[in-house]
Write a structure and sequence with these properties.
The protein is mainly alpha-helical. The protein has one domain. The chain is built from 10 helices and no strands. The radius of gyration is 16 Å and the shape is elongated.
Length: about 190
Amino acid sequence: MQISDAQKEVRTVFAGGFFGQLVSSAVWLSAAALGTWISPRAGIEALVGCGFFIFPLTMLCLRMAGRRTAVSRENPMGQLAMQTAFGLVVTMLLLAPVAQFRLELFFPAMMVLLGAHYLPFTFLYGMRMFLVLAALLAGGGVVLGIYVHGPFSLGGWVGGGLLFAFAWIGRGLVGREAGRYSVSRS
């Protein structure tokens, strides 16, 4: 299987990342809401705890939409997807000392980690849009962490909003590539 064919299958099966980013945005926005209106601890617990369910919830959304939930066995990109997911989990260990140092850095630091997580998606999907998302997340996290001393959940709102917007951008790009804008079975 050629790399371009493998990437196209990933784009098609996962609708340009639409379902995963939509689920991720819901988790981020829920965590931001809890961090804003309940407590920072509730926001942190929601993002970390619910974050572990992003992949299963994405698979559920794909099934509910009548779509395949995996690329073909011949597609080598399936391994890369799993490796990037575990990479994020391992790097999240950095959040503990960061939050102990300054609690308000939790969401900005997570934005930087998530931005790094999205870099390999550029190759995985064959979509440069993920470079832009990665740069906005990581750069936004740095700017919020260093220069903006806003409320605790500001990074959660920004990160969730970026994920929501890019879910629709990815869906549109894949729909245009396929000659249609639906997310029905491919």
